[in-house]
Structures are given as C-alpha cells and as structure tokens.
Write a structure and sequence with these properties.
It contains two helices and ten strands. The strands form two sheets. The chain has an eight-stranded antiparallel β-barrel with strand order 1-2-3-4-5-8-9-10. The chain has a two-stranded antiparallel ribbon with strand order 6-7. The longest helix is centred in the N-terminal third of the chain and has 19 residues, at 2-20. It has one domain: Beta Barrel (Porin), CATH 2.40.160.20. 11% of the residues lie in helices and 64% in strands. A hairpin with a 3-residue loop joins strand 4 and strand 5. The protein has helices spanning 2-20, 163-166, and strands at residues 34-42, 47-65, 71-89, 93-108, 112-127, 132-134, 140-142, 147-162, 171-185, 188-204. The chain is mainly beta and 207 residues long.
Length: 207
C-alpha cells in the first residue's frame, strides 16, 4: 500500500513538473505533438502500472514502392520523454522505476504502427513485509521503506493502432514487450521480461 502511495505521489510530481515547464514565451514557438501514455504494466506474472509523456523530436513522411507496384506511405517519428513504472511482487517487493525513453515509431497509412524503445533510468525496490535492522550493539529496530537501489535499462518493441488517422480521435492503443535489466542485483545483472498494454492520448497534435 505504501508503494502505491509513493507511485501516485511521483506521478503527481511528474505532472506538476510538466505543467511548470510551460513558458509563456513558448507560445511563439512551433508547437510539436505531446502524448500522454497510461498502461497496465506486468512482468508477465506480477501486475502494476505505467505512466509517461512523449515529446516529438522529429517526424519524417516517406513512401516506397511495393513489389506489386503500389505506393505505400508512412511516417517515422522520434519521441523522447519520462516514464514512471511500478509493479507489485507479492511477499517479495514493489519496484518503482523512473526512466527516460527514446521511441522510434513508424506509422503506416493503414494507421497501424510499430515502435522500438530503449530506456535508461533508476529503480528503487521496497521490500514486502516488515524489515528489522540490528545495530552493532544488538539493538533491533524497524527499518521503514526498506529496499534497494539499482541502475535500470530496458529495450522494448511494440505495435498499435492510431485512431487519430482514421476516426479523428486523439487516441492510440498499444502493446509492447520489454526486456528489463537491473544492476547490481546480488552482484549480478538481473534480467526480466515485461509487458505493457494501454493507450496513448494525444494531448497536443501537430500544428
């Protein structure tokens, strides 16, 4: 329960930081798309949540001729943004990790898209149950919010559908598989697959 409160508090802090980052002078600058992402996050067994923002760095429209002679169109985007994730492993720990994510997304004229996304950041686990600490004199005390800190890396591939291209809805649905790495985990590199499924809301489309 404590870890859920921490996760929600971090989401609030992330949202506030995004709000304060808006400068009045920015009204005169070209406005690029901003997306908000909310997903169910799972390590295939243990569930959690994931929230983040996507800021478009660049976008390129292109086309190619298929073997059939038909021309197909697509858009390639590079997006960067912060992501906050959490999952709960009952009886073991809760893991909260904050990352910076780079996303290479390719959207076809059919509105389907694929993406590749490496992430780097910081992970903090909170141990399940009560943790006791014994000092040098043998005195026992309860250690609050006990856990461990890790460097965090992740690589993911996913796909989805963009409703803004077909039905003018500022919404995308997505599914992605990630491979997470945490270090040092018992002096070794800890690898774990994860899955996310959810939606991306286009807070501001390209103008």
């Amino acid at each position: 329960m404590k870890s859920i409160k921490i996760f929600l508090s971090l989401i609030f802090a992330l949202s506030a930081a995004m709000g304060f980052s808006q400068n009045p002078d920015s009204a005169n600058l070209p406005k690029k798309p901003i997306n908000i992402k909310l997903c169910y996050n799972s390590t295939l067994i243990y569930g959690g949540a994931r929230a983040g923002a996507e800021f478009q760095v660049k976008a390129v429209s292109a086309s190619r001729i298929r073997k059939s002679g038909r021309e197909s169109f697509y858009v390639k985007e590079l997006l960067i943004g912060p992501t906050l994730s959490w999952y709960h492993h009952p009886g073991f720990h809760d893991n909260v990790y904050l990352t910076i994510c780079s996303i290479w997304r390719r959207t076809k004229s059919t509105c389907f898209f694929t993406e590749f996304s490496p992430e780097i950041g910081y992970s903090r686990t909170f141990l399940g149950g009560t943790t006791y600490l014994v000092n040098g004199s043998g005195r026992v005390s309860v250690e609050k919010l006990a856990g461990y800190n890790y460097a965090f890396l992740s690589i993911g591939e996913g796909f989805g559908y963009d409703f803004s291209k077909s039905k003018s809805l500022p919404l995308m649905i997505c599914l992605k598989i990630n491979m997470m790495a945490m270090y040092p985990y018992n002096s070794t590199l800890y690898l774990r697959p994860a899955m996310e499924a959810g939606f991306i809301y286009k807070l501001r489309d390209e103008k």
